[in-house]
């Protein structure tokens, strides 16, 4: 019984502690002229944390789900992993300490114009020197999209089929966001009423090629009593300036 209690205590304590790793950014972006980037890991907890990094690939469904896949869906994704260099790939961040992971991009001379993507996984857990403690360590993985663009990439978008829906008795705006071009989209949604009051927000919405559209659900803070306007704007710091708007008549 005592061993069970010790194991349970260790697990619960670890779950609370390993979440104290924070990242300086949630995406790594290389514009056409960028060759370097970096992300900082900060340990705000009271225990040393170890981390391990790896590269994997994902695909997006039209429902907006991100699914990990064993092999790249596009040849450009495979090239992304080959072009990307980063270090250190693993290490220990002391309590209250920081660690910078630095990235560099090596583009071949004959690289085709377009967007290249991969996902960097950073798995963190409490550092331990006792082998018998390994099985008790939960691991939290942070998955960071790595976006690399080369040459003249373009994208355009529209908001279609927007409507009010109720999910679990909470109001949402459901719509279809289209994508036309050779790069992905990444931006934020704002829903306002006719007075300009904000009724809903949804940040960090991506649409990845080769999709031509995806479903988006925007939660509202209350049931609207009048017409709404849905606004989408790309995040310029990640290489996009596209905007789109849709009106909903209720």
What does this protein structure show overall?
With about 250 residues, the chain is mostly beta strands. It has two domains: about 1-150, Immunoglobulins (Immunoglobulin-like, Sandwich); about 155-250, Immunoglobulin-like (Sandwich). The protein has two helices and 19 strands. Strands 2, 4, 5, 7, 9 and 10 form a six-stranded mixed beta sheet that branches. A four-stranded antiparallel beta sheet has the order 1-3-8-6. The protein is globular, with a radius of gyration of 21 Å. It starts with a helix and ends with a strand. About 25% of the residues are buried. The model is unreliable at about 1-20 (pLDDT under 50).
List keywords for this structure.
250 residues; mainly beta; Immunoglobulin-like; 2 domains; six-stranded mixed sheet; four-stranded antiparallel sheet; 19 strands; globular; disordered N terminus
Largest sheet: 6 strands, mixed
> Distance N terminus to C terminus?
60 Å
CATH class of the largest domain: Mainly Beta
- The best one-word shape is globular
Count of discrete structural domains: 2
Order of helices and strands: HEEEEEHEEEEEEEEEEEEEE
Supply the CATH architecture of the largest domain: Sandwich
β-strand number: 19
Class from helix and strand fractions: mainly beta
What's the mean pLDDT score?
88
CATH superfamily of the largest domain: Immunoglobulins
Low-confidence stretches: 1-18
